[in-house]
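Mods, move this if it's the wrong board.
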Amino acid sequence: MKTALIAALLAGIALTPAPVTAQTVGSGVAATNAQNSAERPILFAASAPADAALAIVMTGAALPGDLPVDASTRTALEAAIAAEKFTGEAGDKLLLRGFGGRPSVLLIGTDAARPDWATAAGTAAQELSSTNAPVAVAGAPDSTAMAQMALGYTLGQYRFDRYKSGREDRPAAPVTIVGAGADAARAEWTGRQTHLAEAVRFTRDLQSEPASVIYPASFVERTRAAFARVPGVTIEVLDEAAMRRLNMGALVGVGQGSPRGSRLMLVTYRGAEGPPLALVGKGITFDSGGISLKPNAGMWAMKADMSGAAAVVATALSLAKSRAPVHVVAVAALAENMPGDNAQRPGDVVRTFGGQTIEIRSTDAEGRLVLADAIQYTIDRRQPFALVDIATLTGSVGAALGSEYAGMFARDDTTANRLAAAAETSGEALWRLPLHPTYAKAIKSDIADIKNSDASGAPGASAGAHFIAHFVPETLPWAHLDIAGVDWRESSAPLTPAGASGFGVRLLDSLARQWRPGE
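Not the wrong board. Structure tokens:
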């Protein structure tokens, strides 16, 4: 009797499952609680602090007339310029250490015909980054040039070092932009340029964070925090359940292999009446390739595959904080592309918000999928007067254009010219690439409306652009920006230290300020 009872009890124990504890997504242990090290604050003044390292921006070999140095220092500088054959041309620079009673004097050249004050100041930021002294930058002829210097210095001194546990913080003594228009420059800086610099920094931070920190839900929360108490802004977020109800099978399908749910976020800033300009960004917070798995080499960089989404919400941030008289909607199509046990497969067919069908030929051509639903929803619900999408879409655009130009596609010359003008103003370069009817035929599917890959006969970047164009009405002004070659820099440039570039924010900010409905 006792033996039978014990056997029954043991059998019951064996048949009773152990309690299940919900698994934390990720490790649950934060990599750091630190922030990036402090940057130099920006000041404006008519004269340079006596103990500051001095950067002088020049448009030729002759020193500016109102230089904040005494006569003997000026004479010594002129002698050094002659001895070192300094020309003052764009890109030319000369560093003189322990000169004229200052820690250092840095001479920086810029084009006399088209001076680039921002780039010159960015050069100063990087060349003088290790000096412990305050810094002063002189040579600007007016307040607008001074404000551009402040922008350039701020962009050039950016750093992302919050995960370096043993870091030695760089000096954070102020940088003073010197010139006769200090008060007007300060007003322009605080009214506009500081917000643009903040927006670029916000984008770079999002790009640089690991995918364990930035995923669809946390991207949304970072954005909400950035826009807290900013007037004129509304934020709409769709989770997976809402997107399923709307038949957004393309966007939800990309993220179905990840435990981190997808999101569609629309940030609307209404600083003017009338229909908005729509800016739609690809937001793949990590792209493993899904079932069509990428090779390991370089996969770490796919944490920045959300660069387009970061750029559009940051553009809205810049416009809203500077109270620009514009109406924009910035749309982030957010998903994590992982090869989980529920991941979509090559050969699947998905349905979009607008009822179109897409054959999945490669799960690694996922950016165009999330954009398809985001674009259709934005057009339907916001009715914009024009739409620009921006995405790290194809490796082929980088192979074609390198790291100096983003690829730009547009159906009409008027729209293309608007983008080109904004690129010229902002300094973020574009190169127009072709949309050809033959390429459009290459994305047709045998079993669905279109396919997302295997577009034989079409260049990769053009095939991607045609795919997106399929979801944009012919009557709507539209441009597609492929930034896969410019979102990340392997080496430093004056305005972009090595790493995340923040490309697109200055460009789109300029575009939004210039483009109005009906124009």
